[in-house]
Design goal:
alpha+beta; 34% strand; hypothetical protein yedk fold; single chain
């Protein structure tokens, strides 16, 4: 799962994919970027995708929620949300088996730039009646921005004719660090190296290669995780470390 991500704007002034480089410029000041982007607010953030003939990239705001074509209008979409069916993520292992995601995985792959994401670790303190969830922020040790594998499609509201580009972030099995942090579902977003990110959006890939890249596990020893306050979603500084005295350290050194 990956429902909360963030972008520290000062760290991501440029998008670089091998020989392609783009300056974010005014895009970096857009409301789509911030240290806490909540997927459940169904708002926009930036995605990177290939242009029509795959000779360059374009950076655009897109709606974080992959809306399937059978959702006719916003009323139907709101009903599906109430039924607990958010399409924020796409599971890498089932990407090409899914009627909803397959075509996008084959033809409409994109990237989501980020500098960190948030996930919950479950733990039952001594004397507590049930487990509690503790939020963590996860970054790269080098402090750099990174790319999340994603897929996109354009959705049309059939009641109004309005269209919008929508996307879902691809998730993969947890690496050693995220196995301890996200210790319920053992998932993590698919973080790609620059070379894999370029391949994901710019190259016409075989089905086997799509699944290989979608399932890539970024090296655990190049990532860092630390606990943050439980109110991080509304905090002015969601990345500020917060120590819980009852919470043991993760055993893998991060």
């Amino acid at each position: 799962m990956c429902n909360f991500i963030g972008v520290t704007v000062s760290k991501i002034q440029f998008i670089r994919l091998k020989q392609i480089e783009k300056e974010l410029g005014s895009l970096a000041a857009m409301q789509e970027l911030g240290q806490m982007i909540d997927g459940f607010k169904y708002s926009n953030t930036l995605i990177i995708r290939a242009n029509t003939n795959h000779t360059d990239i374009e950076i655009i705001p897109a709606h974080w929620e992959f809306i399937p074509v059978w959702i006719k209008d916003m009323d139907a979409l709101k009903i599906s949300r109430k039924q607990g069916i958010p399409w924020l993520n796409a599971t890498s292992e089932k990407l090409l088996e899914s009627k909803m995601f397959r075509n996008a995985a084959l033809k409409r792959r994109c990237l989501v730039p980020a500098t960190h994401f948030y996930e919950w670790r479950n733990y039952q303190p001594e004397g507590a009646k049930k487990e509690q969830a503790y939020p963590y922020a996860i970054e790269l040790k080098n402090g750099n921005a990174f790319y999340l594998a994603a897929i996109w499609q354009t959705w049309t509201d059939k009641s109004t004719g309005e269209t919008m580009d929508t996307f879902a972030i691809v998730t993969t099995k947890a690496n050693a660090l995220m196995y301890e942090v996200h210790n319920k579902k053992h998932r993590m977003p698919t973080i790609l190296t620059e070379n894999l990110a370029y391949e994901w959006v710019m190259v016409d890939l075989s089905e086997q290669r799509i699944l290989e890249i979608a399932s890539y596990q970024y090296p655990a020893n190049e990532m860092h995780a630390y606990s943050v306050a439980k109110n991080f979603k509304i905090s002015e500084n969601p990345l500020e470390p917060f120590t819980y005295s009852e919470l043991p350290a993760i055993t893998m050194v991060s």
